[in-house]
């Protein structure tokens, strides 16, 4: 009896999951519009689907995500670490790996893209979705920074964006000037012991 119940629960969950993902990628219809909130809650940010497999949208810029941590001692002094390159950690896990992890390739990049989409140039979270995405980015950064086995109570991110130069050359055959990099520093975020 217990096994039959467990199988039924798994099948029901699978049907709900497939239905939710299908409705999130299907063209707008009555059902997806009526239950948009529930569908988004189920799908984002972990089960998001897109059609880029068939029509890739290559990145137009290289983004380097850097993090530094701070620890406040009992006497109130704050010790700040140097910047560590979180993107380089992911790149080293992918490089020379015949079967690289999807997590190493995309998690940090997609979290930053979602943060940009939900926050724009402001670092204020003005919706539930923006707060969830900010927390998601914070958790990823805190987990990666915790690999150094240090305890910290705050973290700050800096993202350096370098546009990818066009392969087009000038009429005389020389290359176009290299685009300038832009840097964006986020405010310090408090980290609880649960995060690291």
From TrEMBL:
Cited Pfam families: DUF5819 (PF19136)
Region annotated Disordered, chain positions: 168-196
Protein name: Uncharacterized protein
UniProt xrefs under InterPro entries: DUF5819
Organism of origin: Streptomyces triculaminicus
Origin: domain of life: Bacteria
């Amino acid at each position: 009896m217990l096994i039959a119940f467990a199988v039924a629960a798994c099948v029901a969950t699978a049907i709900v999951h497939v239905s939710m993902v299908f409705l999130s990628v299907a063209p707008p219809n009555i059902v997806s519009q009526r239950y948009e909130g529930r569908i988004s809650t189920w799908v984002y940010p972990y089960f998001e689907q897109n059609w880029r497999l068939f029509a890739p949208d290559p990145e137009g810029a290289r983004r380097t995500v850097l993090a530094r941590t701070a620890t406040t001692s009992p006497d109130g002094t704050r010790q700040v670490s140097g910047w560590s390159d979180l993107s380089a950690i992911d790149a080293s896990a992918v490089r020379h790996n015949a079967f690289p992890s999807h997590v190493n390739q995309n998690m940090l990049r997609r979290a930053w893209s979602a943060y940009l989409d939900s926050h724009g140039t402001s670092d204020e979270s003005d919706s539930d979705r923006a707060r969830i995405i900010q927390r998601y980015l914070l958790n990823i950064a805190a987990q990666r920074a915790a690999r150094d086995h240090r305890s910290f109570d705050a973290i700050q991110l800096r993202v350096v964006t370098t546009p990818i130069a066009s392969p087009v050359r000038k009429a005389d055959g020389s290359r176009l000037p290299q685009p300038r990099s832009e840097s964006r520093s986020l405010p310090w975020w408090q980290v609880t012991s649960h995060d690291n």
